[in-house]
Amino acid sequence: MVLELARPRPIWQIMFSTHHTDVGLLYLVFSLLAMFVGGAMAIALRVELFAPGAQLIQDAMTYNRLFTAHGTTMIFLFLLPSAAAVGNYLVPIMVRYKDMAYPKLNAIAFWMIPPAAALVWLGMADFGWYANPPYSVISAPAPAAEMWIFGLKVLGVSSILSSINFVVTILKCKHPDLSLGKVPLLAWSFLTSSIIVLAAMPTFAAALLMLLTDRLGVSGFFNPAVGGDPIAYQHLFWFTFHPEVYVLVIPAIGMMYEIIPRFSRRPIFSHSSGVAAFIILALVSFASWAHHMFATGMSFTEKTVFMVGTLAAVPASAMHVFNFLATMWNGRIKFATPMMFAVGGIALFFAAGAGGVVNTAMPLDFITHDSYWVVGHFHLFVFGTIAFGTIGFVYYLFPYITGRMYNEKWGVVHFILAFVGACITFFTQHILGLFGMPRRIYDYPEIDAWISMNQLVSVGAMIILVGMVIFLGNMIYSMAKGKPANLEDPFGLGGKYYYPFAQRNPQHGEGGY
Amino acid sequence: MAHSNWAEWIYLGVVTALLIYVGAEAWNVERIIDHAPADAEIIIVTGQQWFWTFEHEDGTKEVGELHLKKDHAYKFEVTSIDVNHDFNIPEFVVLMDAIPGRINTVWFSPNEAGEFEIQCREYCGLIHYNMRAKLYVEDV
After folding, report:
1. What is the extent of the structural domain holding B11?
2. Tens of pLDDT along A298-310?
3. Domain named Cytochrome oxidase subunit II copper A binding: which ranges (chain B) (predicted)?
4. pLDDT number for residue A497
5. Using CB atoms within 10 A of its CB, is residue A19 exposed (0-12), middle (13-18) or buried (19+)?
6. Could you say which of A81, A292, A409, A506 would form a disulfide bridge with A31 (CB–CB 3.0 to 4.6 Å)?
7. Which residue of A has its CA nearest to B26?
8. Chain B residue closest to A127 (CA)?
């Protein structure tokens, strides 16, 4: 696509570039860095929970800070930027435009992320990624909490800017001959997820400001001691962050829509059903936020409404799964690494969705709420589905970015370790939740079932870690020493690729890619 | 669309039917367990960083432990005096957020005698992991 390594240039040229492939590269490198940082935090948490008593982390405060930073890092610094990376690379090409609609805005949106990351990582707040008041108002230590609030504020603005850019690029800059219905599904996924961000994110921005003024003592929106209501925050928070789940998952599904037809050597079973499912998901994502709050003392009617709203998201998700399976049916499938991650991601997506139905069935929610079940459930989404789609796509883009092939054998080993590790870790966490273990705990009593399951979960996490180290090694080694890729068809699939890899970057000079 | 989509419609019909079944069943169960029996004894549960206080109807207070009788119905009025907690007896699927400024209710009737764990299920700070109490259900 841009062949960074074949035509090296000074790093500042990439850093100050506004070209979409350069910004995409920055997003990609930063998000992978954040993934390893967040992953290291997860490993520290899992080592600590391997057995009762202090293992690696000596005090609860450090543990609480770590799980907060882990969640914030993975969602805002890994998953969102990695989706933006893929979108930056491919959306302009798919709508046949020379760049994003607003290239400078695009670069600004990226460069807001590293300072925000610095605020989050240097502050290390301790109130969980949801900053639940009144704890976050009256009890969380300063200045960590303020730094987290400002960091998230910046990240929110950044994601609004990049969403505006995607929406305008797709709707206004697409080639006049290309009707919206024919826009590839990956670009459609960015259109729908960007619209969700634009509708949902301002609510959280407001909630963050209210939280900040509450902490400063000049207001009392969420502080019951001065007449506020902590539940109001939860509504504002989840009104943004339940749709945000779809903001993360929809681009990952879009990436699978790119990989699966390609590696099945068949066109997508139904383009229109994919588009319809994206639009339905975007709409119903706003109908289910309060299913996170069944245990806050909601009335029977409220719970019923939000249960129905949540169940309504399932058929649209099922349409995607059907579309994938129907595309693969009778296909001449080549199970290269990107395809393996995409198919593994679908399997875990299905499992995560089934667990979600259990969560939202009202009486069952009172078994799973705030237990390790929930931890296992959403990790099947964020790791099993979204990170799988993203990592698969990183393998898929690798030859286009570097001009070289990654090592296929080690890629397959990475997939097997990631898949087996994810199953061991996250399915066991579901069962651990049914045994009553609460989430966000530094230590646990010596209950035999809890100990053995926690050990299993930690072993699973280590398997994922080994896979990720192999991934990193494979990327670094192959960048320098990998086989030169055949850019017309790096995966040997035959057939024409949707988009040219030869998107021209003006900074590469005349005749360059 | 060049091809027929009947398989997808059948599949969607099956998925939707399953969801309607799950939703209706959940609605039906929740409707029944939402109402505490009229003769349930009221216990005021107060969470604070990082312990539980229980006040019986006759005014007796217990801290860190709760004594109940087997096969009696109890209705907990759950609240908090500082930050959010969550009152949870995993063995009996009793779970309700303790939120300052609000009183949430949840009821149960222990059908088994013995000693059970009470824990906090909502993150509440430093000692959240050890915000525990004991439930003693006595056979009378």
Report:
1. 1-34
2. 999 999 999 999 9
3. 38-140
4. 59
5. buried
6. A81
7. A361
8. B125
Domain regions of chain A by residue span: 11-508
**CATH code where residue B87 lies:** 2.60.40.420
| Nearest Cβ partner for A322 among B8, B23, B93 | B8
Within 10 angstroms of residue B13's Cβ, the number of other Cβ atoms is 11
Contacts of A272 in chain B (CB under 8 A): 1
Provide the token pair at B87. Answer: 């009152």
Residue A59, CA distances (Å) to A53, A54, A248, A397, B121 in order: 10, 7, 33, 42, 19
* Residue of A211, A301, A366, A450 to mutate, interface with B, max B Cβ within 10 Å: A366
pLDDT of residue A450: 95
**Exposure of B72 in the CB half-sphere (CA atoms within 13 A):** 16
pLDDT confidence of residue A61: 95
Counted domains in chain B? 2
Return the DSSP state at A310.
H
Q: What residues 33-72 of chain B have any CB closer than 8 A to a CB of chain A?
A: 33-34, 49
Q: What is the mean pLDDT of residues A355-365?
A: 91
Q: Are residues B4 and B66 in the same domain?
A: no
pLDDT of residue A3: 59
- pTM here? 0.93
Q: State both tokens at B47.
A: 């969470």
In total, chain A counts a number of residues equal to 513
Residue B51 DSSP class: E
**Is the domain of B2 the same as that of B71?**
no
Q: Is the same domain home to B8 and B65?
A: no
Q: What is the 3-state secondary structure (H, E, C) of A54-100?
A: CCCCCCHHHHHHHHHHHHHHHHHHHHHHHHHHHHHHHHHHHCCCCCC
d(CA A286, CA A281): 9
Is residue B48 domain-shared with residue B29, that is, in the same domain?
A: no
pLDDT > 80? residue A5: no
Give the distance from residue B25's alpha carbon to the nearest chain A alpha carbon, in angstroms. Answer: 8
The answer on B71 and B17 residing in a single domain is no
Mean pLDDT of chain A: 92
Q: Across the interface, which of B11, B97, B128 has its CB nearest the CB of A297?
A: B97
417-436 of A, contacting B, C-beta below 8 A: 435-436
Same domain membership, residue B26 and residue B95: no
Residue A510 confidence (pLDDT) above 60: no
Question: Is the CATH number 1.20.120.420 carried by domain A11-508?
Answer: no
Average pLDDT over residues A450-470: 97
